[in-house]
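Batch manifest line 410
LIGAND: L-homoserine
JOB: complex structure
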Amino acid sequence: MVKVAILGYGTVGSGVYEVLRKNAKSIKRKAGQDIDIKYIVDVREFPDHPESNLFIKDFNQVLEDDEVSIVVEVIGGIKPAYDFTKSALSAGKSVVTSNKELVATCGTELLNLALEKNVNYMFEASVGGGIPIIRPLHQCLAANEVTEIFGILNGTTNYILTKMIKEHQNFDDALSDAQAKGYAERNPAADVDGIDACRKITILSSLAFGKAVDANKVPTRGIRDVTLQDVKYAQKLGCVVKLIGHTKKEGERVFCEVSPMLVPNENPLSNVEDVFNAITVKGDSIGEVIFYGKGAGKLPTASAVVADIIDTSMHLHQNKFGAWKAVEGDFSIPEDEIASRVFVVVSSEDRENEKFKVRTLFGEDTDIIDNSSNETDFAFITGNMPLREVKEKLAAIGKVVKWMRVLENE
Ligand code: HSE
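JOB STATUS: finished
ARTIFACT:
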């Protein structure tokens, strides 16, 4: 029998408890032995819980108990999750987590510690909630040189953008709707400013390319500035606006970003709606594969955590996946070098003259869409060129209200 301790009895922790209890028989069949919960560590009291005897407050009790071989860290955040994880791995216990902030920030150190101690630090639930993506990258796609990953990695912002696209709600109303449904937090910054998606693409990039990406250096833009007018322009140009996490490798260098982008209607990601996530992985042998499903929620996330517990129970003293490495020097590709088409919104008192300039700079056949509700604004999409070139040309144009890249999928 394998004994586990669950750290944190919030949404994910209670989901893990529920799945381990509900599916105990089939989990035993798959793991080859019983997986039992010995402790649930939480500072709060749960006197009415049917197994209130499992609850303890002191993590040291877990650490000192040799019977516990798997620690399930579902507290979230850095403190005290980092200290607990480090102590557990140092004590020779494997750790399973859904904590994307910790994996994105301290994953390099913790994975290398797990490798050194010959235990596992598993984090399937940290990206895409219930969608299998970490293990497929590690195992099923292992034969490939992965070249590029892009996806909708945040359910809350995808819900907000879907409301803007389908129901023509403005950003503030769509955000209130997402908050009322319990998708967005009262402080929605981590979701709407792209921070959550940044952590997820950082993890995917580090894993796929083996080099630790620094989340703080990833260009990250959220969706606060996306307007209903942008959504309408995009629709007229045959696209939808989506928040995209994107990473690709060229030679030894890696590009990583989070940004709202125009996704052409022919790209399958354009049809991913509401709180769903989807991740496209490109490999040199597989071509393209897409992972789609529920990227958040109690039981979908618990599903991924429990799968990691089962896998870990079968590899208790054998490090299964290795670790990505810290790399000396800057290996990032500057955003300005990335080539794509770019959607640009311009405002000018002399709209016709400005449109003439756009056609002179970007070509006679440039698609230009007027804003029908005023006489000053218009939008267009450039040809495929490095962002630096787009910016240089735009310097010659009047007031550029905004630009967003188009998601290219050659
Ligand atoms: N806030 C996240 C989302 C939860 O909306 O996708 C899952 O990481």
